Input
Amino acid sequence: MIHEALNLLGEAHLEEAYTVAFEEWDSSEDTLLWDSAAGDGLSDAER
Output
């Protein structure tokens, strides 16, 4: 029971860390660079 409680506590802490990291990433200039590099270009293709 204690082991399971510690695992759940760790998961909650990890979720918070990911949320903070994503918010930091999303507000940085790197987000725009990544979006331009990661797109497949299909939206800009002539049809």
About this structure: The CA atoms of residues 26 and 32 lie 9 Å apart. The helical segments are 2-26, 30-38.
